[in-house]
Design goal:
Number of helices: 21
Mean pLDDT: 84
Shape: elongated
Largest sheet: 5 strands, parallel
Distance between the termini: 146 Å
CATH class of the largest domain: Alpha Beta
CATH architecture of the largest domain: 3-Layer(aba) Sandwich
Helix content: 40-55%
Structural class: alpha/beta
Strand content: 15-25%
Number of strands: 19
Strand order of the largest sheet: 9-10-13-8-14
Number of domains: 5
Low-confidence stretches: 287-291, 538-548
CATH topology of the largest domain: Rossmann fold
Radius of gyration: 37 Å
Length: 548
């Protein structure tokens, strides 16, 4: 090929190039190349010569960056926020690659520079040859790659990745979740994540459907709710602001359920530690602005499955709200600058225990979607190969979930949770209503009653810290009491009207805490009072009887 370039640079008429190459091949090549190969070389050299005459690039690092752009402007991209390279695959999906891979691609610059050299006259080739040698060095290649990032169309923002809010990328194309149409992959959308399944409109999933009926105890409404919830999870929407919590102990199928979901979502899903949603060392959970690679890697995901949580832990309510509210999150990769992204993922948590929820506001509880896994699979019915069988049905499970997405849209973009979900959440909320539990145990409603707030709060604080390992501030407890209908008054100390304590408060000097002492059931107390009255009456009557 170099010989062919030298002929054209020496002034040979392109029409005679093929003839000259045939003679050269016969005389000098041992063994000679096939005539078809010689003809192909002649065509390519003529085309390259015509395209590049007058377009010789500079012998500088910037010139090398422009050469890289000529070679890779269609196949390489650089993401500024995450400092990651993307390479377009034959499928049209963009795959993350490291810089060593890009450096290996940059080696093609060297051959390109030598080709340019033979487009020059012999007297002008020396500087180009020296530049080719420089480019072969580590410094030359790295400088070329560094400057290539600034070439037009190469650098991307993270928000430009995985475009298409209603498109679901699968291995063999794109599914429009609104129209249901299936199209080939589009490289211009810069898709980096896909579900781990090929779309097959005729696939079914009988084993999966039977499995769900079994673990949901035959509750068809609950199974259909799961279908809508998973269909909603396929989208990039977060309008439901939901935390799906698969709860239950024992061999109940929830781990298999979530494992199959992870397999279905593939790159669109991620496994995360449930601790992300919990308080850390008694303080709030992970900060919204935390420099966390754990959070940064969730950008672009649609499903985040979370592992079991320990008993006795507390939800960080602000963190749950951040991750389910659709608000912008700030994160960063390790040792890199912070960047912002809007979460598209839906949280699916599995647990044998319910973390404590301190708040009583509607904002946290409306997010909770407690899905009961109450069926224990008998040992003789457990199939150790079930997960593999379910994963073989992934194309059918995808169609099942797509139908759920369609139902969700047709329902006005509402999940329409069944009564059992609302009941489970109401029970959970009742269990977590610390003030309700305290009031039920230590007070009674009484229109004429009132409590002195100062000492009562100290008692509440001691009790809640011992029972729940946390307490409210005095101001918050006061607000909750007012929300429950107990009016505040000052006389001169703050009191709350409409209730009374049914315990005597005693200050423990050893612990510095107030405790409720001598709890007596009201009915028992009333019987005791009646008995005491009768005894006193009898004693009085006895004293009034004159001796015989």
């Amino acid at each position: 090929m170099l010989y062919a370039f030298s002929l054209l640079n020496g002034g040979l008429n392109p029409d005679r190039l093929e003839e000259e190459l045939f003679e050269y091949n016969a005389d000098c090549c041992k063994p000679p190349l096939p005539e078809s190969e010689v003809a192909r070389v002649a065509i390519n050299v003529i085309k390259s010569h015509q395209e590049n005459v007058g377009h010789i690039m500079h012998t500088t690092d910037l010139g090398n960056a422009e050469r890289m752009s000529e070679l890779y402007r269609e196949t390489l991209r650089y993401v500024c926020e995450t400092k990651q390279w993307l390479e377009k695959q034959d499928s049209g999906v963009w795959q993350r690659v490291d810089e060593l891979h890009v450096l290996s691609l940059a080696r093609k610059l060297i051959a390109l520079i030598y080709e340019e050299m033979f487009l020059l006259s012999p007297g002008n080739r020396q500087s180009m040859a020296m530049h080719a040698q420089y480019t072969e060095s580590n410094t030359g290649l790295k400088n070329a790659v560094d400057l290539f990032r600034s070439e037009p169309g190469i650098a991307l923002s993270a928000k430009d990745l995985d475009c298409g809010d209603w498109l679901l990328p699968v291995r063999n194309g794109l599914i429009d979740l609104q129209s249901g149409t299936f199209t080939p992959m589009r490289p211009d959308l810069h898709i980096t994540y896909t579900a781990a399944v090929d779309y097959d409109p005729n696939a079914t999933c009988p084993i999966w459907e039977g499995f769900l009926l079994q673990i949901m105890n035959g509750d068809v409404a609950l199974v259909e709710y799961l279908r809508r919830a998973i269909g909603y999870t396929l989208t990039t929407m977060t309008s439901e602001h939901a935390l799906f919590f698969a709860y239950g102990s024992g061999a109940n199928g929830k781990s298999t359920f979530l494992n199959v979901l992870r397999a279905l979502f593939g790159d669109l899903g991620a496994q995360a530690n449930g601790d992300m949603l919990l308080e850390k060392n008694g303080a709030g959970g992970m900060s919204q602005n935390a420099a966390s690679s754990e959070v940064a890697r969730l950008m672009g995901k649609r499903l985040v499955a979370m592992s079991e949580v320990e008993d006795g832990r507390h939800f960080s309510e602000k963190t749950v709200k951040w991750y389910t509210g659709g608000e912008v999150i700030t994160a960063r990769m390790l040792y890199q600058n912070a960047f912002e992204f809007k979460p598209r993922f839906k949280l699916w948590l599995a647990g044998n225990y319910k973390p404590t929820v301190k708040g009583s506001d509607h904002g946290i509880w409306r997010r909770m979607k407690l899905i009961p896994f109450t069926v224990t699979i008998p040992p003789e019915e457990r199939d150790p190969d079930l997960e593999r069988k379910l994963c073989e049905e992934l194309p059918g499970i995808l169609n099942w979930a797509l139908a759920g997405c369609r139902q969700w849209r047709e329902n006005g973009y509402k999940l329409n949770e069944p009564n059992v979900i609302a009941s489970e959440v109401a029970e959970y909320r009742s269990e977590m209503d610390v003030v309700h539990s305290w009031l039920s145990e230590f007070t009674r409603d009484d229109p004429e009653g009132e409590i002195h707030f100062g000492d009562t709060y100290k008692f509440f604080k001691s009790w809640s810290e011992s029972q729940y390992n946390f307490s409210y501030s005095g101001n918050k407890l006061g607000r909750i009491l007012k929300d429950k209908g107990y009016a505040a008054a000052s006389k001169p100390h703050r009191v709350y009207k409409g209730l009374r304590l049914i315990v005597d408060l005693e200050f423990n000097e050893n612990t510095g805490a107030y405790v409720g002492h001598s709890f007596i059931n009201e009915e028992v107390k009333q019987r005791q009072n009646d008995w005491q009255t009768k005894v006193l009456t009898a004693m009085t009557d006895f004293e009034e009887v004159e001796p015989a």
